[in-house]
Amino acid sequence: MIRPDKVKVFIVDDSAVVRQVLQVVLQRDPGIAVIGTAPDPLFALQRMQQGYWPDVLVLDVEMPRMDGITFLKKLMAERPLPVVICSTLTEKGAQITLDALAAGAVSVVTKPRVGLKDFLVDQTAELTQTIKAAARANTRSLRPAVRTAASAVKAPTQSTITPSAHILTNTTEKIIAMGMSTGGTVALERVLTTLPRTLPGIAVVQHMPEKFTATFAERLNTVCALDVREARDGDRLVPGLVLIAPGGRHMQVRRSGAQYHVEVRDGPPVNRHRPSVDVLFRSVAQCAARNALGIILTGMGDDGARGLKEMHDAGARTIAQDEASSVVYGMPKEAVKLGAVDRSLALGDIGAAMVEYGRG
């Protein structure tokens, strides 16, 4: 008999080694019970329907008979369930994993092609934390994002190397900094697809591994009127541009004369993350203060809460996603507890608040 306080996990992966190692490392946590494993989604669905329905599903994406994304879409349409994707660190894997997140997956655990056993053992704490957070996820917020095509063909991108004097003037007035984690890829897409190109420059930290952020930015760029791309060191923040912090590196905002630009740098993890939302927010508090808007979205943990408090105390306006619309109400909750938040808004209202801020 499984104790009711344990998180029941089912593992679906075509690799017997992965299934075995995952089961062993997860079972070491007294709060987790692995109730079943399967080599593909069809076997998994059969077992789950026989009484092995889990609290969290750990799912590979490339498998025989039925791929993980097809299975995920089926689950989200018929019986929404928190799903943690286990994917390899390849460019192809990055695209497939982002498709899975868009289809409703809660989070991603990356796995290497070599040294898998040592990697999973070393990452046991992070893996179990991710699964426990997924078990608390708001399944009503896991429905797939509705893709919205950009409203028109994009105008030529304003150069981030030699912007006009008019653009420089606008850039010194306002910038927007955003941070998110679990559930954030879909949340960010839903916000950005509602925004016009006239908005101030936006700097974003989404907790995401290397090789994923460039693909993520490209994906957003195809569905947004704004220009979206992975940040490069020295890029200027100009109206109509969204810069996504590269996975595995921190991003800060600095002011040079009348211009805001980003610094992308190496460094130790902050709050267990690199990039860290706190690193971004603290830099914005120092260089932009009351000329900035800070927004913290869905995510587990507390990264960004203290940085948003620094922005708030420096005179910036601050917004947190509310509990009802968050997949995981962790980061926003911690920011609210610190007194860092001016307004808590539903995800669907945040875009309008950003437009209002841009208009002054």
TrEMBL record:
Listed InterPro entries: CheB-like, CheB_C, CheY-like_superfamily, Sig_transdc_resp-reg_Me-estase, Sig_transdc_resp-reg_receiver
GO molecular function: phosphorelay response regulator activity; protein-glutamate methylesterase activity; protein-glutamine glutaminase activity
Keyword Amino-acid biosynthesis carried by entry: no
Reactions the enzyme catalyzes: [protein]-L-glutamate 5-O-methyl ester + H2O = L-glutamyl-[protein] + methanol + H(+); L-glutaminyl-[protein] + H2O = L-glutamyl-[protein] + NH4(+)
Gene Ontology terms describing biological process: chemotaxis
PROSITE patterns per record: CHEB (PS50122), RESPONSE_REGULATORY (PS50110)
Residues of the CheB-type methylesterase domain: 169-360
HAMAP family on file: CheB_chemtxs
Protein name listed in UniProt: Protein-glutamate methylesterase/protein-glutamine glutaminase
Organism of derivation: Thiomonas bhubaneswarensis
